[in-house]
Design a protein that fits this description.
mainly alpha
Length: about 200
Amino acid sequence: MDISSFVLFWAAIFTSNILLTNFLGMCSYLSVSKEIESSFGLGISVIFVLTITTGLNWLVYRYILVPGNIVYLQFIVFIIVIAAFVQLLELIIERYAPALYYTLGIFLPLITVNCAIFGVSLFMVIRNYSFLQSIAFGAGSGIGWLLAILMLAALRRKLKEKLVPVGLQGVGISLIITGIMALAFVGFSGIVQIQ
């Protein structure tokens, strides 16, 4: 692909936000976004995992799967790489940030099956990104995911003080807010669109 890594990084944050334009990674986004602190912690973890695993998966794909003519195993191999890295991250967070570890609870190991993480690795292959483009796309996608979850957490905090109809409380109002945020991000799509 002929797009520069710099442009790809910013496009992954704004115009092609992995969460707000592709709606990947919604389960942990909706569940953890109740508190800003836990949203920030999970968002930083997602940035770290997306950046590193996208690079690792690019290396595995280019130097093991393609030369070995075993590209058909890419889904399994990508998931193994992601799971191993998330396990390592979980051990590090448990050791050095136990409060964050307990706040995130089950959602930290669930980063392994977060479809945004897997989706970025697949987009990297489908779009034929270089190594630097893959790293930029992974980091930008992670920052875009963090931006989206922080915006939702801040809005949910404000909504605690407001009267929300009973049928819309919780996930209902969160989905409406997400839809409105997605429309705002679609407004950026005229700047640069990555395909």
